[in-house]
Amino acid sequence: MSAETASSSTAGPPAPVQRPTRRFTGRNNRGGRSVILSQPGGYSTEAVYRPPQPIRGGIPICFPKFFDEEFLEKHGFARTEVWILTHDTAFPPPTPDHAYVDFLLDHKPDDFQDWPNHKFELRLRVILGPTGDLTMTTRVKNVNTNGEPFAFKFAYHSYFSVSNILATRIEGLQGLDYRDYLNHNQFTEEADVLTFEEELDRAYLNTPDEIRIRDLELRRVITIHKDDSLPEIVVWNPWEDDAGLISDFGYEEYKEMICVEAAAMDSEITLNPNEEWTATQRLSAKEY
Ligand code: TA6
């Protein structure tokens, strides 16, 4: 009998599976409630919600814009709107050891004046798995009754906490073309891993399904798994000078964050009436 089998025979029955849970907070001063998905091992986040300011942190949903032509209006209205909490039977039923929540943002007449005359349904399912994996699936449907198509861009604007930006590496980008938004040029990534020593704002094009964020101090790898609907990866850190210009960004916080965003932002997605687009990203973390 091998040592491995001997130890498993004395280990007793396996520990019961601890399931992620979901709960609702009380109503806030705008009448809204928050939904908290938690996993027994931890994993919580905090964010301040002061509409119409977007939340700095977490995973804001960028829709229907990412940049406009003049770079003036960034990231669209979806991230600052109040979404409806719903139960969406059109999503596949999740397995019992996952906690999930469904949200809906739809069109009311005269809403969203910077994207007028478009009726849409924007649906989001967030699933927390037993090992802390976080899966987000978005569905965008054109429900225009005037026969018109519409076009949009999209991103999961994910903020990640890292121990030290100087000890952070992004893996999976070598050989890819990227647009550099700091000097409006296009380059090809030559480095085997992306490191940080100054402000960086780039969109990598035609990226693979998995991109990893390696935290050398924490000895942790976060993997972003994404589907083909999200061909780009945006990487952003404002560094010292730019962070100082952003009012809700702590002066030193650029040292402990990185945005790595699965996106469809390089070209627009066009939907005809009744067509639907879906995009999934899953985040998982592993220590090594
Ligand atoms: O996604 C990267 C980026 O567009 C950067 O250019 C930077 O401006 C950042 O997002 C912050 O955007 P926000 O609108 O959240 O302040």
UniProtKB/TrEMBL annotation:
Matching Gene3D superfamilies: 2.70.98.10
Single Gene Ontology MF annotation: glucose-6-phosphate 1-epimerase activity
Gene Ontology CC, one term: cytoplasm
GO biological process: carbohydrate metabolic process
Lineage summary: Eukaryota, Viridiplantae, Streptophyta, Embryophyta, Tracheophyta
Protein name as catalogued: glucose-6-phosphate 1-epimerase
Stated family: Belongs to the glucose-6-phosphate 1-epimerase family.
InterPro entries reported in the protein's UniProt record: Aldose_1/G6P_1-epimerase, G6P_1-epimerase, Gal_mutarotase_sf_dom, GH-type_carb-bd
Active site location: 157, 261
